[in-house]
Amino acid sequence: MMPNRLKFLELAKIANARGTLTQTLKRVYLLNYVREVRKEQATTAMAARERLFENY
Questions:
Q1: In 3D, which of 16, 37, 17 has the Cα closest to residue 26?
Q2: CB 12 within 8 A of CB 26
Q3: What is the DSSP letter of 56?
Q4: C-beta separation of 28 from 8 below 8 A
Q5: Cα 38 to Cα 16: distance, rounded to the nearest angstrom
Q6: CB neighbours (10 Å) of residue 4?
Q7: What is the pTM of this model?
Q8: Nearest to residue 36, comparing CAs of 55, 54, 11?
């Protein structure tokens, strides 16, 4: 199973191959990709923070 963030890149590739990738659609896919990457980073940071407090 691929990560959620890669789903948006795959959708952009498909739209580009079909010739339907407009600037607006590209921007939407990019923003969704960035949002997913930030979610993953926040999840990782929260897990690290939880482990830090477990040690006390």
A1: 16
A2: yes
A3: -
A4: no
A5: 25
A6: 14
A7: 0.78
A8: 11
**Long-range contacts made by residues 31-35, C-beta under 8 angstroms, separation at least 24?**
32/8, 33/5, 33/8, 33/9
Place of tokens 């407009």: 22
Here the contacts of 7-10 (C-beta below 8 Å, separation 24 or greater) are 8/32, 8/33, 8/36, 9/33
Q: What is the pLDDT of residues 41-53, one digit of tens each?
A: 999 999 988 888 8
pLDDT at 36 over 70: yes
Count of residues in the chain: 56
Whether residue 21 is predicted with pLDDT greater than 90 in this model: the reply is yes
User: Residue 32, Cα to own-chain centre: how many angstroms?
Assistant: 6
Q: What token pair was written down for 24?
A: 């607006």
Residue 3 has a pLDDT of: 75
What letter does residue 4 receive in the DSSP assignment?
A: H
